[in-house]
Amino acid sequence: MEDALVALDPSLVSIRSSELVDLAMAYAKEKEVERACGLLAESLNMCSDDGLVVQVQRVIGVRKHMSRWHDAPAVRDLDERLQQVTWAPV
Question: Which domain holds residue 41?
Fold first, then answer.
């Protein structure tokens, strides 16, 4: 999955963002919280800049999946970033 992401055209922001969220969910399921949050933050940066509401909602969905790690620094950093996306329905 990561190889496909590297090969993906950077101009395909929505698809690239979606792939990052999918990969983040896979890492979250493996309890690799820091890696998952890093990918979610990368996706969030892309989709919030382009106003891709559905993609932001997908980031929020994966973040909710990681609620048991709410006190982990990477999750707190992601929460702060989500708060900065003022139009995001957090």
Answer: 2-84
